[in-house]
Amino acid sequence: MPAQRPRASFEPISTDLDINQLVEETPNFEFCNRLSFTEIERSPEGLERFERMVREVCINKGLPLVIDGFEEKLDAWAFTPKWLIDNHGSKVENARNLTQKDNIAMTIKHYLSHMGKLTEQFFEGPENYKDKSRQRVYLKDIDCPQVWQDKLKDIIPGAVFYFNDSTGLIGGPGALNDPLPHATGPRKGKGIGIAGDLMSSLPLEMRAENLMCYIGHEGTYTPAHREMCATMSHNIMVNTSGDVDENGNPERPGSSIWFMTQSKDRKIVAEWWQSTLGHDIELEDHFAQIAAWQRAPFTTYVVEQKLGDFVLIPPLAPHQVWNRGTRTMKVAWNRTTVETLEFAMHEALPKSRMVCRDEQYKNKAIIYYTLMKYSSLIKQAEDVSQRSESQRDALARSKKYRQVQRDFIRLFELFKEVLLAEMFAPGSKESCELLTFDSNVTCSYCRANIFNRFLTCKHCNDKFGGDDPYDVCMDCYVIGRSCECRSKYKWVEQFKWKHLQDRYEYWREQIIKISGGMTGRTPYQLEEERRLYPKKTTAQVCQEQLRIRPWIDIKKETPPTDDEEDGEEEVTLNNDGTIKKVTKKKTKSYFEKNKSCHVCLSRHPKWTMAMCTMCEKYWCYGSLYRAFDLLPQMVLEDPNWECPHCQRICSAGNCRKDPRQQPYVPNGTSLGHDTKKVADIRSVECLVDFGVSNLNWAANDGSQFERLQAEQETMNQTQPQDHSGDEMDLDGPRIAYSPNAMIDPALAGDVPDTLEPLAPPEQPLISNIHEYPDPSTTTAYPDIDNSGYDLNVTMYHGPGTVDTSTPAPVNGSSNTNKRPAADMDPIKIVQRKRKRKANDEEEVTPNRNKASKQFQQEQHKKQLDQARKEGRYLYVWAKLNNKSLKVSLTVPQAKLEELQSIDQEKQAKEQQRNNVLLRSDIRPPPLVVYKPVPKPSKPKSFKARLEEDEDFGARWRPKAGKQKKKQPQFEEIELENSSEDDFFYERAGGNRSSNRRKSDWLARKNQDEDEDIPEELPQDYKDRAPGTRSSLNGRRSLGQKAPRIRPTGGSNNVDLTNVATSESEDEDDTSAAAENTASKAAEVARLAMEEENRQAKLQALHWAEDGEDDDDAAEQDGTEGDEEDELFAAKTPTPQRRRAGPASASNSPAPTSNSARAGPSKSPAANGESLASRMAGRNIKIVAAKTKKFFSKSGPPGRSQLPG
């Protein structure tokens, strides 16, 4: 993980800060150089000289520059909040909430209308600006309106504007006629010249649009950062608030404060940020306080940007911005030049790769397409020269054409580096998959844009779903970044290698023509360049690493580890013979595959270590990177690598005692970068953990700044700032630059372009707040033009303000206004807070006494026993053992929405407490509510097959003749109740699952058939008398009627008359007697119902045995049927049924004649007939419950749902 150490805090800038006083009192603060655009336009060849001046000052020397005077040229109607509201007010943008570090979606109109409220909160009290919790909303990085772009294009010099494709003059040397489709003749085109922005060389679909608008109020800011890919940044203020707005409402005057540095101090600035402030400037997450800038060991250039000020920031120069007033509206864009491409390829891109920052500008593609463009321009110049001698002479004198030739050569050198890095080892062949180039392939780890060759893994493309292959650039794979598979990658290229070789040879021939033949700096053929290349190429290193890195099959459940040991186990015992620990004995193969690092003394797999070619010591790449500033790529590319011990710079513990060794101290501080949050989720780092800092090795005593300054001075002496001088003598006169005079004196008038002394201008265009010493005595700038200019320069603070007082001397001269560094405000640091446990106040110092430990264990045991009884065991156990307890609960959707609404209300109240003044005016997207997939609706009815019952089945007598095949019988069941529905649905083969109980339906269905089947206990079973049972209140089966309590015949029948009489006579008895009587009545009813059901079942059995033929015979001769009834009754062990009649005739036999049965119709209830007596002698046919469809008489009757 990155280092956790004290870090500088965010400190807002005061609302009444005096910039002039701040700069005058701070020794290392200086005002930025200013240049008036009005004077540029007045001078002859002013724009051409302005272009050269920007290249010399901002790019070669790396100094910031401000050009003022554009406020009079800005459209007073378009660049206003009213125009923006009228034309783009409804457009939704993401405003950056700097306080909460999140985005708020809102319309532009909503934001502009609330800027006054957001500003006034800082002026309500003298200390309000210090409140860090106040809302700071910054509308940044929004698309610039096309109208604004067109109007700025008319006033900004084309050489420094957005997407400028040519700086050539119309009708200049090498110009061609542009045909006009609707005109009578052609139009003169632009002459040959370099592109102001090399991004314009890319096709439209490949360009990165970076023309952005920034609208902010008091207290908003941009953290300290460096521009992406070392590009040059441009920022112009197009609108600021004044004293009153367009509607007459009061406002606070708007401006922006810039803190900028010089490009050559970039390493010192980066080290100051990490070692002193505890932040990484590559991450753009910290706005440095003024005290940090005042104590910094480098010069800070300060400027207050007002309306019409055009700020140019040099490449790789760190800077930050603070907005003041009610409103500031700026337009910014970045430009890519040949110089910025060199900075990007050699410095910016490697650093961006370490922090996984997006490469949006596609630098290698820009190199390729710009070479194609400049090659066509050079070919065009050759064709034009052959047509006319005047054109040939004009091109020979043209500085713009010679600049195209210089940039073409420099771009070719960068292209050669790209091709050399992608060349395989000599004699090796790789099968590469061809993928058409569209500039959209990015590295899955560092997110850099890949130009041609890369590695891809297709084994883990479906690990997390989808079909996304893992593409990794060669630079990442060399330093150990890859997916978990580590090896078995496939090569992919986006251009045919033969095509790139042909391009290389064609452009090389053009360079030879430009140089006038072969010279010492002429590039060789590609194969010869590869042979002379002193190191291994990046592609060759990847080939070697693919062979030695083990492949891991991530689809297996337990992938093998690198430190797997298969040796024997060693058991260590305590004094009492118990096992203390068990370790595996390392085998011989383990020591062969794993070596000990010379620095950290830990064993690592050999493929993760570097071996010295001289002493054969092994070094882990983590120690080499953190202690010696050696990346794995630097070690692997060197075929004859010598370790630090052989170089006598080893800083290991034993080597420090050796007097021959001079321990190496890292040049800078590295806090580590946790890239797991931004890289692909499948990514790993197998060679170096770049998230670990080097604080244990780096010196933090201030000596690192002295070393960096000495290194920078050495670099400046060996590498001159001006790259234009070469053997071809393509340069004209150099632009003289002096901070005590004008940047380009020739801008003041029509003067010869020479280095001869010039007459001093009447009014210098650029000046500084300080007065500099005599140029003849200064040595700070070796290329100063000592032309004897008037040193009494005008103090120029800004447009409309001129100070004629005595200028302040430069640093080093006597100045009483400068405060010493000891009097500066200290840098406020945020100390790292220890995570306090929840029970810290109860925690005491642990006792080391054995008796105390035993007592504490007993106390814990008692607490756990008590918690177990109370159901709090897990919670108490987790508290006692300092463990985190995680419980997963299934929350219903309705409850979840309720909790979310409560949480939103709490957040709203918290926002009110946190001084939230601006909220989004966009309706939030609807809450995604989980809707379960609807289950198939259950059928309302189904058919159930009827099966024969052994107890009630009949033995069928086959008839003479051909027997018909028995057809299966079905019964259609209608579902009405949820409990019955579930039961029947499962019986019918449905796959529905339900957690509801089925015992309720089963108990009701079988309550009178089989007493062994368990039934569900009624709700009032505890309140009944022993031995009693009540009828269930649930739904009855299909066709079932409510049972009636009535007397039945037989010896077991109970006469209810006496019971009813006794009840009427004992109305005044106690409640206990009444309960006893009720229980007896319930028992009598139960017995009567059981007897009735038994008789019905016996009668049904009798009908099944006799069949339909007996019934027909009984209809013809009634006596026969009666005799069978008497026989059936005689065989029955239970008493015969009897008809209701007088009491005296209760024991007389029942009449057996058919005529007796066919008496007058009477009510069965009135006659006291039982169910069996009412069904006797009837031809009953079993039908379905719903359809009433008769079954075939020839078939076997199925089971019927009889009453009861």
TrEMBL record:
Chain intervals with Basic residues compositional bias: 956-967
Presence of the UniProt keyword Repeat in the record: no
Transcription regulation as UniProt keyword: yes
Record domain JmjC: where: 174-352
Cellular component, GO annotation: nucleus
Residue stretches of biased makeup (Basic and acidic residues): 997-1007
Chain intervals for the UniProt region annotation (Disordered): 800-866, 926-1173
Extent of Polar residues compositional bias: 802-818, 846-857, 1049-1062
Entry keyword set: Nucleus, Transcription, Transcription regulation
Organism superkingdom: Eukaryota
Residue ranges, compositional bias (Acidic residues): 971-983, 1008-1018, 1106-1127
Biased composition (Low complexity): 1071-1085, 1141-1158
Chief site of localization: nucleus
InterPro entries in the record: JmjC_dom, Znf-4CXXC_R1
Compartments it resides in: Nucleus
SMART domains recorded: JmjC
Name assigned to this protein: JmjC domain-containing protein
Species classification: Eukaryota, Fungi, Dikarya, Ascomycota, Pezizomycotina
